[in-house]
Design a protein that fits this description.
- Strand 8 (about 260), helix 12 (about 265-270) and strand 9 form a beta-alpha-beta unit.
- With about 350 residues, the protein is α/β, with parallel strands linked by helices.
- It is built from 13 helices and 12 strands.
- It has 3 domains: about 10-65, 434 Repressor (Amino-terminal Domain) (Orthogonal Bundle); about 75-180 and about 300-335, Rossmann fold; about 180-300, 3-Layer(aba) Sandwich (Rossmann fold).
- About 40% of the residues lie in helices and about 15% in strands.
- It has helices at about 10-15, 20-25, 35-50, 55-65, 95-110, 120-125, 130-135, 180-195, 205-210, 215-225, 245-255, 265-270, 300-315, and strands at about 75-80, 115-120, 140-145, 160-165, 175-180, 200-205, 235-240, 260, 280-285, 295-300, 330, 335.
- The protein has a 6-stranded parallel β-sheet with strand order 2-1-3-4-5-11, with helices on both faces. A 6-stranded mixed β-sheet has the order 7-6-8-9-10-12, with helices on both faces.
- The longest helix has 17 residues, at about 300-315.
């Protein structure tokens, strides 16, 4: 029987003329190894057909994680809204942007990365001053919180950073991203609302929100409505500038038995209209944030922050920067929350 020859890390080291430690660090994209040496090592490994033993790699990872980590790199979390510091949130309920950030902190610390908030200033973004700010702080990776309504002029030298975006936006983005699995979430929401016996669903959204979400909520609700008798099909209220009066007119004219909406103002308007939730009308949110008692889909925003750091760390490990050749999206599934804003309909 022919002897099977396994290519080792030493073979790669001999080919390049470096130590086995250098090969190990280079294949993991460690910042201590120059880009030129890393490239030579990877080419040699590919030519020789070197494949690391996955069991040894897992063991090495476990050993490394059990030791105290030094600072691997500094990351920045770019956000539009003011985010409170973690110490201030110990006794307060975080909003969902803060949940993203807290999740990112947890993962960054576990991997040995530093992370800091950077409050976005539109003037600094346009002028390019933000580049200098990030450079002065030694930032290697950016988690960018996108704004779903307002477009921005991003004058940032993206090629200098490992990148991951979060949320949705009207801007065009070609970066790796972490997002809610909205299609799955909306499908789950509709299944639960239908099971409770609701038959006259009304969808309320901002037009920019609908556009940024790629019309997912609209399409899922429309698909349900097409299965209903014509007299039960209620037109969506999707407007660029929703007003209380416009909402009241729509509500009185079409009389939905459940409102599907992610806007806090609309919840208040339903109450102002004299209707009781859920006795007179149901209310359900596609993405529950601060209101804990509502029915709808709740996403683990902290897990999304953790996933964003994982995406950044992967790029740093493989010495990847800037706009990727093939952008990848990580979708985080949500879970149904029964809440108190829906009830089983009579006859169901």
């Amino acid at each position: 029987m022919a002897k099977v020859y396994s290519i080792t890390m030493k073979d790669v080291a001999d080919r390049v003329g470096v130590s086995r430690m250098t090969v190990s660090l280079a294949l993991r994209g460690h910042q201590k190894i120059s880009a030129a040496t890393t490239e030579k090592v990877r080419i040699a490994a590919k030519e020789l057909g070197y494949n690391p033993n996955p069991y040894l790699s897992a063991l090495g990872s476990h050993i490394r994680s059990s030791k105290q980590k030094g600072l691997q790199a500094q990351l920045a979390y770019l956000c539009h809204k003011e985010i409170r510091s973690p110490d201030r949130l110990q006794d307060e309920t975080p909003n969902f942007e803060e949940e993203f950030y807290l999740g990112a902190i947890r993962r960054a610390e576990s991997l040995g990365y530093g992370i800091e908030r950077v409050q976005l200033n539109e003037e600094e973004m346009k002028s390019g001053k933000l580049n200098q700010t990030l450079s002065n702080r030694g930032i290697m990776g950016l988690i960018v919180w996108r704004h779903y309504i307002k477009g921005f002029e991003w004058n940032i030298e993206w090629d200098r950073f490992a990148l991951c975006t979060m949320g949705v936006s009207r801007d065009s983005w070609d970066f790796h991203s972490v997002e809610c699995d909205r299609h799955r979430g909306m499908s789950d929401l509709i299944d639960h609302v239908k099971a409770l016996g609701y038959k006259r669903p009304g969808l309320v959204m901002l037009e920019e929100q609908d556009h940024s979400h790629h019309h997912i909520q609209r399409s899922v609700v429309s698909n349900w409505q097409l299965q209903l008798p014509t007299e039960l099909q209620i037109p969506h209220l999707i407007d660029d500038d929703l007003s209380k009066k416009g909402f009241f007119d729509w509500l009185d004219r079409h009389n939905p038995d459940v409102v599907i909406c992610g806007l806090d103002d609309v919840w208040e308007w339903v109450i102002e209209s004299g209707r009781s939730i859920p006795q007179d009308i149901g209310f359900v949110r596609p993405q529950i944030t601060e209101r804990k008692n509502l029915s709808g889909i709740r996403y683990d925003h902290g897990s999304m922050g953790e996933a964003a750091v994982d995406v950044i760390a992967g790029q740093i490990n493989y010495n990847e920067r800037g706009i990727p050749r093939v952008p990848k999206s990580v979708l985080i599934s949500g879970k149904w929350q029964a809440g108190e804003s829906l009830r089983k309909q009579s006859g169901t």
